[in-house]
Amino acid sequence: MTPDSNDLWFLPLGGTGEIGMNLNLYGHDGRWLMVDCGVTFPKPGRLAADGSMHHHGEPPVQMADPAFIADRRETLCGLVITHAHEDHVGGADPFHTRSQRADDPHAGRQYFPQRRLEAGRPAADWPWLIPNRHSRIWRLRAELIAALIGQLQGMGVKVITAEQSDLPIHASGHPAQEELEAMYRWVQPAVAIPVHGEEEHMAVHARLAKQTGVPKTLVGRNGDLFMIRPVPGMRRQITETGRLGWFKEALVRVV
Predict the structure, then answer these.
(1) At residue 141, what are phi and psi to the nearest 5 degrees?
(2) How many domains does the chain divide into?
């Protein structure tokens, strides 16, 4: 399962057909590039990409099983994190298990490894957590965020939170419908591959792409191989996918 110099492949292992835990691979000329490695906070009753339902008793924090690329680690040329939301970066450490406590002194470097923060330079606060406000995960992460803000303020960095800002702070990584339409009109791609959402979300996205003039759309789920070049197409379920959860201080297979 190796792309040649003519191929450009896209292989999602997590986050396509479900909400959260994005983990995507791009293949070209014998090499793979990983884009994002996130976590999800499963909610009982919510659909997973394989059609199963999350249920009570699952580990509270989960990530996509990276077995496909772990078995080919010598072909992995890098990892790109698109932004610092937990569903895109949370599994990269892995799971930020070392940063679950509020007293972790390295939290700032883990979240902002390439961003230069200086005294007097504003830093907008990132969005608060998706999990239920009364959950243990929410409380732990809220404590960590508060500690990190305190560290930044100790450096002289002005941290602007949504509660303190006179203007709305837009920190969502999800474009609205009008923004998607504008993007498609500007870029005019030959093919659109909706990802990052459940089947219903991706189907609506595909219809919108067609309505704005995209000639071809490919809709699939985790484990499907999307062939972008030389000829757009798909191969269904070329690899097994699944989830790992953090349980009793260890990663365990969920499904």
Answers:
(1) -70, -35
(2) 1
